[in-house]
Amino acid sequence: MFKNLVFLTKTDTTIGFISKSSKKLTEIKQRPPSKHYIKALPSLKSLQSFIRIPLAHRNRLRRSNKTTFILPNGNSYRIIRDNHHLLLLNRLGWAYTTSANLSNEKYDDDFAKKYSDVLITPLDSENSASTIYKLNNKNIKRIR
To answer: What parts of the chain have a pLDDT lower than 70?
Structure first.
């Protein structure tokens, strides 16, 4: 039902596109298909259904807020705590999330509304992007 829809909404960090279809997001953002999207999840339990979390980092992920983690499988995950964003994610289960703009461009309201299938209001002003950490079994490296 929601598989190919692109939602435009206020996420926990910015105004963004949310979708279960990475192909559709790639077309909209005009970015290389080899680039991965962040997978937004409603809980730590749902993250554990995708990957085994390294023991050294479980508490860090559990306590994280507005933080994206690149895990050893090379994919990026963010556990969402924002209530507005969680309303959609609880219905979808999980979704790819990205800023609502062309790659390497600033946010443009007309562009975002043109390429979204469903608009979820309110669209408040943008906040800062999430912090990104790359994790392996023992180490952590800050990317952004």
So the answer is: 1, 125-126
